[in-house]
Amino acid sequence: MPASLIGVGVGPGDPELLTTRALRVLREADRVYAPSLAVDAVGRAESIVRGADPAIAVERLVFTMTRRDDARTASHQEAAERVIACLDAGERVAFITLGDPNIYSTFSDLAALVTVARPDVPVETVPGIMAFQELAARAGVVVTDGVERLSLVAAIDGADVLDAPLADPAAALVVYKGGRHLPDIAKRLADAGRLDGAVFGELLGLPGERVGSVEDAATGPGTYLATIVVPPAERAPQ
Ligand SMILES: C[S@@+](CC[C@H](N)C(=O)[O-])C[C@H]1O[C@@H](n2cnc3c(N)ncnc32)[C@H](O)[C@@H]1O
User: Fold this and answer.
1) Which CATH fold topology does 131-230 show?
2) How far apart are CA 213 and CA 195, in angstroms?
C-alpha cells in the first residue's frame, strides 16, 4: 500500500459512535495521530479511540488552539512536518478528529500543508457522526423534513451570526462554538420567537454531558464543546 494521509472522524464523544469504517482504517494504519494541547494531555479524539479499541496506538501532535496567529501557524507547520516524515517513510498515516473531518476540523489545515509539500500523496477522509446529529437523536428533534433548509454557524464571535439564518422560518439552525455566548444566543432566539423547541447539548458522550432545552441551559456560559439545534419555526408542507 502506498503512503497516504487519511482524516478519520471519530464522532462527538461516545466510542459507540465510531463507525466500523473508521475502526478498520485506524487498525490498518501504520500510524495514528491525534491533535492534543500538550504531549502529555489526552485529547477528546484520542480518548474516543482508546474507548473503542485500546490496542490502537495513538500518538499526539501538539496544536496551539488559538485564533490564526504565529504560534498557531508554527504548531500546524511542525505537525505537518512530522506527518510528512512518516509519509516519506512510506507509511499510511491516519489523523483523528472529533465529529467529521470535513467540518470545522484541524485536519483540513494539516492536509493543506501536507499537499503543498507532497502534492502526489493521496489525501482521503472517513466521515464521522457530527455533534448536532447526536444531539438531535438524544433530544428527539427532527432537524429538517421535506424541503426545509439547514444552516450551520460557528458563533465563536457572538450571536450576530444567527441573525441571517433566523430570518428564514423554514430553516433549521445548528450553532457550533457558541458555548461562551449561550445567554446571548438564547436571547437572540427568544427575540426571533425561536427559543421554544431549541435544544442544547454539551460534552455529548463525554464526562459532564448535559442535554436539555436552551432555555434551561442559558443561565450562564457553556463550554466550548456545546451545540445548539433550532428546528424550523414553520414545518414546510409535504
Ligand atoms: C472545532 S468544531 C468540531 C466539529 C466537528 N468536526 C464535527 O463534525 O462535529 C468544535 C465544535 O463542535 C461541536 N462539538 C464537537 N463535539 C461536541 C460534543 N461532544 N458535544 C457538544 N458539542 C460538540 C461544538 O459546537 C464545538 O464548539
Assistant:
1) 3.30.950
2) 9
